[in-house]
Amino acid sequence: MGGVVMHGKRSLTRRGFLQRAAAAAAAAAAAAGAGPAIVPSSVLGADGKVAPSNRITVGMLALGRQAMARNLTVFLRWPDTQVVALCDVDRWRLDTAHERAPGQPGGAPEDAETLKTCPHYTDFRDVLARKDVDAVMISTPDHWHVSMAIAAAKAGKDVCCEKPLSLCIADGRILSDTIGKHDCVFRTDSEFRSIPVFHRACELVINGRIGELKTMRMAVPNWNEPLPQQPEMPVPEELDYDLWLGPAPRRPYTEKRVHPRKSYGRPGWYANQDYCNGALVNWGHHLADVVQWANGTERSGPGEIEGTGDFPPADGLWNVILGFNIEYRYTNGVELFYTVVPPTGEKKPYVRFEGSGGWIQADYGPDKLTAEPESILTAELGADAVRFPLKNEKRDFIDCVKTRAQTMEDVEVGHRATSLCQLGYIACQTGERLKWDPAQERFLNSDAANKPLTRPPGREPWSV
């Protein structure tokens, strides 16, 4: 199936379709004198196969770098999930998804045929209107996460949404509260709780194997760089630019604002504050979730924040924060230090926990776990220890869609991890030592710091 195919609403569920199809086959066979129809056992879920009526159907909302590399092939390869809709505002990505997916991690040759015949959409609202879509995977640029996730929840879909969840803390609060009002299973799509070294580090810290937790450290890579405004360019014929902008301010099109044309190179939106808070928040969410988890503050936050940062010209096209050093202090006395991985050398993104009885550090890419004393790493947790399941983040989502249980990183936990990074960004902007009330989500000592908590002027709410 090439090009874009628009479908209207469907009133027939997958289970209903299968029941009617089986009944129709039986009736036709009886009319022909052929006796009872034989329905394949796979349709009924026998022989270890999952019946189509029991699969979770997934609509893919956006097919950029993250969707292709991390998200799409997972849902394609599992027997209890079925991708039934592809959506992207870039029609080139829709038309070529079947060519790229087989070559991605976990991809298979049969994926190409599945994606060729899968309905294609440029407007996510057409996917949400389908009655046969159980869940959506949101892999859009950051500025779309809140509006799209809320629209999906209101449409009765379960939601797996890429991190970070929002561009400002007030919008994250709106998202969390709205999700809570609907029967919506929500998974913040950060995989770090599913990476064994980070999972193990948190279990050891939570179970006191480094003694009393005193200090946490984390560092992220930062590919951001400044770039002045670029000349306006004609909008590519394959791109619905108005829908790409969505809730963002109206700006002239230039390729480095969006993403490389007919390519999966690093997108320009990652470096512009209208669409992203840069690596500090986008990448930092992963590690922020881990430290909040280990500290027992995953539904709360710090009490004080102070930071300094290197800012490019605000009127540039790429204008997010570059280098930074941020200090947080929690009401339990634990301190967190957040900075950028040096651009040279072998040091990788990491989290480090220091306690009264030693320290433990988890490094990313390649994953590595170290500790002092080393005996911490082989410590037996015991039968009464606090333990957490270790499973793929999307497996967690699908399992919870089936059971209606709470995911390991639900919307409130995801909101608080995103907020932790956003608080640091604001502290760097103001240069003040800020006092934060996690319950009210307000600064207690700075009107200037409270202003960035809400949507900046020009970002209008997107009506869906």
Compile the SSE list and pairings.
Elements lengths: L13 H18 L9 H4 L11 E6 L3 H13 L3 E7 L3 H10 L9 H8 L2 E2 L2 H5 L6 E4 L6 H10 L3 E5 L6 H12 L5 E4 L6 H11 L6 E8 L20 H5 L33 H4 L1 H12 L8 E6 L14 E6 L5 E6 L9 E6 L2 E6 L4 E5 L20 H11 L7 H20 L3 E4 L4 E2 L3 H4 L14
Keywords:
single chain, 464 residues, alpha/beta, Dihydrodipicolinate Reductase, domain 2, 2 domains, six-stranded parallel β-sheet, 15 helices, 32% helix, 17% strand, disordered N terminus
Averaged pLDDT, please?
89
| CA distance, first residue to last residue | 28 Å
CATH class of the largest domain: Alpha Beta
What count of structural domains? 2
Counting helices, strands and paired strands, the structural category is alpha/beta
- Sheet with the most strands: spatial strand order: 13-12-11-7-10-9-8-14-15
Instruction: Write the element-wise H/E pattern from the N-terminal end onward.
Output: HHEHEHHEHEHEHEHEHHHEEEEEEHHEEH
Any idea what the shape is? globular
Radius of gyration: 24 Å
- Seen as an oligomer or otherwise, the chain set is single chain
CATH architecture of the largest domain: 2-Layer Sandwich
The CATH topology of the largest domain turns out to be Dihydrodipicolinate Reductase, domain 2
Roughly what fraction of the amino acids lie in strands?
Answer: 15-25%
Low-confidence stretches: 1-46
Tally of contiguous helical segments: 15
* Largest β-sheet summary: 9 strands, mixed
State the CATH superfamily name of the largest domain. Answer: Dihydrodipicolinate Reductase, domain 2
Number of strands: 15
Fraction of helical residues? 25-40%
